């Protein structure tokens, strides 16, 4: 601006409405009450979605969005119980709600992946923010320092 000011500045940001994201791996067969596989194939929307929704309600998660998606898992050489390519139930919910336990499993699903991912990590990956760089911030509101 010609008066010694700068259009760039260091700042601290607070990002509101951050979402958590987990991927639920369905089993091939539904488990019975004793934990043994039955002859019934698992359907993601007919079996996994209702079972997970019930668990989410019990955890106090009132709103979540789900969709069936295909994903590749690159660490299957470390854990062969997770297929390299599979269909998952992708679940997105507010970070205001609690995290699911890493060992969560049900009669229709064997794993929930992404439970240990921090909101910051997900935000940085989704926005492709890696390493030092310039970020344009629009609609920022200054707050007084105390």
Describe what you observe in this structure.
16% of the residues lie in helices and 27% in strands. The chain is an alpha+beta fold and 146 residues long. It has a four-stranded antiparallel sheet with strand order 4-5-1-6, with helices on both faces. The longest helix is centred in the middle third of the chain and has 15 residues, at 44-58. The radius of gyration is 21 Å and the shape is elongated.
Give a topology summary.
Blueprint: E1 19-26, E2 29-31, E3 37-41, H1 44-58, E4 64-72, E5 85-94, E6 109-113, H2 119-126
Antiparallel strand pairs: 1-5, 1-6, 2-3, 4-5
Terminal CA distance? 28 Å
Q: Report the oligomer.
A: single chain
State the helix count.
Answer: 2
Based on CA inertia axes, which overall geometry fits? Answer: elongated
> What's the average pLDDT?
88
SSE order: EEEHEEEH
Determine the fraction of residues in helical runs and give it as a percent range.
Answer: 10-25%
Give the strand tally: 6
Q: What structural class is derived from the secondary structure elements?
A: alpha+beta
The parts where pLDDT drops under 50 for at least 5 residues are none
């Amino acid at each position: 601006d010609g008066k010694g000011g700068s259009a760039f500045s260091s700042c601290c940001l607070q990002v509101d409405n951050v979402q958590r994201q987990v991927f639920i791996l369905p089993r091939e067969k539904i488990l019975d009450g004793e934990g043994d596989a039955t002859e019934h194939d698992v359907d993601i929307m007919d079996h996994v979605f209702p079972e997970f929704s019930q668990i989410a309600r019990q955890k106090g998660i009132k709103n979540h969005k789900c969709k069936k998606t295909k994903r590749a898992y690159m660490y299957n050489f470390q854990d062969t119980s997770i297929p390299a390519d599979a269909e998952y139930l992708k679940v997105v919910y507010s970070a205001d709600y609690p995290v699911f336990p890493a060992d969560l499993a049900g009669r229709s699903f064997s794993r929930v992946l992404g439970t240990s991912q921090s909101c910051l990590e997900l935000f940085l990956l989704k926005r492709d923010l890696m390493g030092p760089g310039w970020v344009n911030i629009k609609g920022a509101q200054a707050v007084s320092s105390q």
